[in-house]
Amino acid sequence: MLDLGTSFIASVERDPGAMAIAEGDLMLTYAEWFARISALVDGLGQIGLRKGDTLVTAMQNRWENASLHWACQLAGLVITPVNWRVTADELDHALSDSAAKALVHDDAAAEAVRGSALAAGLTVLPLHGNGGLSDMLAGKAPDAAPHASAEDLSVMLYTSGTTSKPKGVPRRHRAERAAAIAHVAQNMYGQGERTLGVMPLYHTMGVRSLLSASVIGGAFVCLPRFDVPGALHAIEQHAVTNLYLVPTLYHDIVHHTDFTPDRVASVRKLGFAGASMTDGLLRKLAETFQPELFVNHYGSSEIYTFSICQDATAKPGSAGRAAINQRLRVVPLGAEDASQTCAPGEEGEIVASMQGDEAFEGYWNRPEADSKAIRGGWYFTGDCGHFDEDGDLFVTGRADDMIITGGENVSPVEVESCLSLHPAVAEVAVVGLPDERWGKVVTAFIKRKDTVSEDDLDAHCRRSDLSNFRRPRRYVFVRDIPKSPVGKLLRRLLVAGEYEPETPENTPA
């Protein structure tokens, strides 16, 4: 298989005049972009970086960041992107754990860099300033030649840590390219597609959007930091044809006062990942965009794709079937290996084959994490789910999120989907809170968009297909539902009481 640097050069040779990267009024063809990237490869070599070295980045989704990702692929450097909102302590963990030789950052991460105890001992490149990343990109150099093989490491992503330090997920060129090609095939991208580059380049979804765009001679339209007016403007300005987002961002777009369907008329294909999508949002997106293709993509940083459903509205909640590079099983909760599987409809833990072309091979310097997650050639995802009688997978949430109330298992996702269909519910999150009698009691946190009471919501649940024991016994009205920087629901904060309740000042009229 091709390494990623060679793969990018092949794209330049195929489509030198096609638009490759855009940000605002900046637009570069593949030939123009390759010239900038080649200058950057040369600049990184001049500051002493060599094949196999690790380079940590803390940057927003600007075109310079995308350029740096490709420059590292050509130079054989292991790019290790972290959240640009990183704290000094978090940054030091990444720098130390990855054995970084250099750090590149923009202004958004400048405070963390100043507070870092380790950055002073590394080569640090700011975005701007004398000798910074922008200066390197403006230089001149011969066309870069690839220095990596398909077996070399390409990138190391850090998984979100909730109870422990984030874990490094190293991935080889061959796994990254296999994931990009599968992404193209499963989302049915055509030649010259244009994608909105808003999912962070420290996140697997952002990296995949960047790599897959090059495979088809397409364009990556950068949006450094998500906001709905900026996203709508970028979609209009550059005639974006596909969106690949987490459900939260879709929600924010279609519920914004600036949104009208004509502003996204160029978008023909929708894809989502990172979290389950409620039935209410699925319905609204289908009606508003009327997409040619609506894909539910279930995966992880470790193994990019688990399953794909190419018609998300046909069977709401279904994550589809195993992807083209994958085999999936559902095993009983607590199983030691993947030999025993659950019957259709029986809930268990979802496990994925490590033989797939997209798979990682283990965590960075974390043998204890490997022994917990990798058993007998299968990756134990920590997600709960079941197959239905048709063989379609349903993901019901994290094993840690499952609510056991009165001895019954309740999936938060199922309850959230039911409540999302109420017209007065803007957003909803469901958790289990401690209860002396029931152990845990199903509790719904509601962000309202119109006046609605607990009795109204309970009546809505009674009229639905939701089983009686799954109905929320408590409702909490909040100003906002807490989420991670990439839009994942943070149920643990609700359990911990870290939320802002509604007040008379912020209650819908």
TrEMBL record:
Domain annotation AMP-binding enzyme C-terminal: ranges: 414-488
Residues covered by the AMP-dependent synthetase/ligase domain: 11-364
Protein name as annotated: Long-chain fatty acid--CoA ligase
Record organism: Thalassococcus profundi
A Pfam family hit: AMP-binding
UniProt family annotation: Belongs to the ATP-dependent AMP-binding enzyme family.
Keywords: Ligase
GO MF annotations, alphabetized: medium-chain fatty acid-CoA ligase activity
Any GO BP annotation: fatty acid metabolic process
Presence of the UniProt keyword Ligase in the record: yes
